[in-house]
Specification:
With about 675 residues, the protein is an alpha/beta fold. It folds into three domains: about 10-310, Thiamin diphosphate (ThDP)-binding fold, Pyr/PP domains (Rossmann fold, 3-Layer(aba) Sandwich); about 345-520, Thiamin diphosphate (ThDP)-binding fold, Pyr/PP domains (Rossmann fold, 3-Layer(aba) Sandwich); about 540-670, Rossmann fold, CATH 3.40.50. Helices cover about 40% and strands about 10% of the residues. It is built from 26 helices and 18 strands. Strands 9-8-10-11-13-12 form a six-stranded parallel beta sheet, with helices on both faces. The chain has a five-stranded parallel beta sheet with strand order 1-2-3-7-6, sandwiched between helices. β8, α15 and β9 (about 410) form a beta-alpha-beta unit. The chain is elongated, with a radius of gyration of 28 Å. The protein starts with 9 loop residues before the first helix and ends with a helix.
Length: about 675
């Protein structure tokens, strides 16, 4: 669509001031929030949304829309105001209920609360990395489905980023990755206002941002962020650069228009105050007494833009209908990827007899992933430079790289936090189920991204290998101890630690079906043994998080041994030693987070309240005591591990069949 050059007219100024005043009024009414950024970035938002951003408020999920990512999420009133003015289902009442209980306009934008909110952008740097994931997903969609046309991926990822975004390390990881891939459709505006909460940015931030981003292989453009002509030229220049992402360094005045607080840290995170708001209106020449007032001539600008975009949308829909008719197989594949349609025979499709062998669960996972590659083609992902160790390379597919996005494999580099943010961006964009892999101990580096995936209900899969002290000689820096508990405590994150090939298969089928949140699969480096069940294996029972693998021969169990992962097979061996003296049941608990959701009746059928309970887990077992209310023995770890061969560690920490059986027998005599 051809764009017309605009001058900075009185009407343009009125429109930008409308955005400023409404944003400031929303913060003032809430008596909470950040007015400074919306007031400073109003000119850029106005030019972008009324002249360049491609969207349709009647179809907010239009696949070929431009994405607007407010990475500086503290300026949320800017986004809410733009959505209202642009015809989205965002009312003046929504703006007036900013930051209130059950309001759709939360303090920071939350995905799913309002149409037009593309990402949950709370922690700084998150939105920056999400936009990189979106750009990757757009390129992958284009590579898979365009078939020589320009139907998909023909749009931009716009964003507003702040000093705080650029200080956070996750943005550095994501920026480096975006530059390496040459993601030319990313256009970010850097709100360079020189102010943070504590004062001026030069207290801590004196680098040359332009040079840093040029080193990342980004195009950089410097402008006056209040000059509409410069904003316009910068956007056109950014759009013309197709081989590099662009950072537009926009010199702005935080709290623009406020005579007493502009260009100060005071306007960053506090309301203007009634008197200063009145003074601001006077300085800006605002003639309207009613709060949240939109002058009709301003509303007409936005209404006109929406009408203009409707013809663009209709033209695209016509071409889309022609494409669907001409390419039925591609259309079916696209529909399946968007709806995440899985085969009815998923478990059978992914099964192989090799899963019955004694192997490391990371190896079992790798075997399942090769089947997933064939039967669920929209699963894509990679590792933080660890695919040989995490067994996450899909062998029949190529890698995503600069200029080539047909593949399914990713080289994320040694950037766990950035990887997490990129995965979230891909999930926000839609059309794939993304996964990322690293060692479990490094999940700490991506915890912020995991939490946001859980909060935003994104279907992302995390493959965390080397899941215990039994990785051995690498020592305590690489041995996860507290990580099971740390992940389990995140709401809406499913955590599964399979014990053998069959459970690993179930972990993957669960993750592929879990469309309302992320899933973490914890896998062993070492072989885990063959689980000799005396109960027929059931996918459904395993997916409930806990099920019986060794049933007692007596009428009821005296003691129930709970375990998972690599400790389950040795716990089974310990149970055999205990059976001469006690009636012993063994329950595999691949997912405590899922077992806790089951009915009281099911839990009682698996772990009777009359029995004593033992948990065997080579980690901190925090959380188990909240679930098990009967007498409980924990055979676990109290501190960090040591560097040694796994057999030595098992003996030292008491994770052999003999030591587990001895410990349980001694305890049973005391309870």
């Amino acid at each position: 669509m051809a764009e017309t050059h605009h001058q900075h007219s009185p009407l343009d100024r009125l429109a930008a001031n409308t955005i400023r005043i409404i944003s400031a009024e929303g913060v003032q009414k809430a008596n909470s929030g950040h007015p400074g950024m919306p007031m400073g970035m109003a000119d850029i938002a106005y030019v972008l949304w009324t002249r360049h951003l491609k969207f349709n408020p009647a179809d907010p999920a239009w696949i070929n829309r431009d994405r607007f990512v407010l990475s500086a999420g503290h300026g949320s009133m800017l986004l809410y105001t733009m959505l209202h003015l642009s015809g989205y289902d965002v009312s003046l009442g929504d703006l007036q209920s900013f930051r209130q209980f059950n309001s759709r306009t939360a303090g920071h934008p939350e995905f799913g609360f309002l149409p037009g909110i593309e990402v949950t952008s709370g922690p700084l740097g998150a939105g920056f990395s999400n936009g990189v994931g979106m750009a990757i997903a757009a390129n992958m969609t284009a590579a898979r489905y365009n078939n020589g046309e320009t139907l998909f991926g023909d749009h931009y990822i716009y964003g507003i980023v702040s000093d705080g975004d650029l200080m956070e390390g996750v943005s550095a990881e994501a920026a480096s990755y975006a530059g390496n891939l040459g993601l030319g459709r990313i256009i970010y505006f850097y709100d360079n206002n020189h102010i943070t909460i504590e004062g001026t940015t030069d207290l801590t931030f004196s680098e040359d941002v332009a040079k840093r981003f040029q080193a990342y292989n980004w195009q950089t453009i410097e402008i006056d962020g209040h000059d509409h002509a410069q904003i316009e030229r910068a956007i056109l220049e950014a759009q013309a650069e197709t081989s590099k992402p662009t950072l537009i360094l926009s010199r702005t005045t935080i709290g623009f228009g406020s005579p007493g607080k502009a260009n100060s840290s005071e306007v960053h995170g506090s309301p203007l105050g009634a008197d200063e708001l009145a003074a601001t209106k006077k300085q800006l020449g605002w003639l309207y007494e009613d709060a949240f007032h939109v002058p009709q001539e301003v509303r007409d600008i936005f209404t006109g833009r929406v009408k203009q975009l409707q013809s663009c949308y209709d033209e695209w829909q016509t071409r889309f209908a022609q494409w669907r008719k001409a390419h039925p197989a591609l259309d079916a594949a696209l529909d399946a990827s968007v709806k995440k349609t899985l085969p009815d025979s998923l478990y059978a499709d992914l099964y192989s007899d090799d899963l019955l062998k004694n192997n490391a669960t990371r190896s079992h996972s790798g075997a399942v992933l090769q089947k997933i590659e064939e039967h669920v083609p929209f699963v894509v992902g990679g590792s933080a430079d660890l695919s040989p160790s995490t067994s996450t390379w899909m062998k029949k597919s190529s890698a995503v790289r600069r200029g080539s996005f047909e593949g399914k494999n990713f080289h994320f580099g040694i950037r766990e936090h950035g990887m997490g943010g990129v995965l979230n961006g891909m999930a926000y964009y839609g059309g794939s189920i993304p996964f990322g892999a690293t060692f479990l101990v490094f999940s700490d580096y991506m915890r912020g991204a995991i939490r946001l995936a859980a909060l935003s209900k994104l279907q992302v899969v995390y493959v965390f290998t080397h899941d215990s002290i039994f990785l051995g000689e690498d020592g305590p820096t690489h041995q996860p101890i507290e990580h099971f508990a740390a992940l389990r405590v995140i709401p809406n994150l499913a955590v599964l630690r399979p014990a053998d090939g069959l459970e690993t298969l179930v972990a993957w089928t669960y993750a592929l079906r879990n469309t309302t949140g992320p899933t973490a699969i914890l896998l062993s480096r070492q072989k885990t043994g063959v689980i000799k069940r005396n109960v027929e294996f059931s996918e459904a029972a395993c997916a409930k998080g806990g099920y019986i693998v060794l049933r007692e021969t007596a009428e009821r169990p005296d003691v129930v041994l709970l375990s998972n992962g690599s400790e389950l097979s040795v716990t089974m061996d310990a149970a055999m030693k205990l059976q001469t003296a006690y009636s012993v049941r063994v329950v595999s608990v691949p997912s405590l987070t899922e077992l806790e959701k089951q009915s009281a009746e099911y839990i009682e059928s698996v772990i009777p309240r009359a029995a004593r309970v033992v948990v065997v887990e080579a980690a901190k077992t925090q959380g188990w005591g909240d679930f098990i209310r009967q007498p409980l023995l924990r055979i676990d770890l109290a501190g960090f591990g040591k560097s040694a061969p796994l057999e030595v560690l098992a003996e030292h920490y008491g994770f052999t069949a003999e030591k587990i059986a001895s410990c349980v027998a001694a305890w049973m005599k005391t309870v």
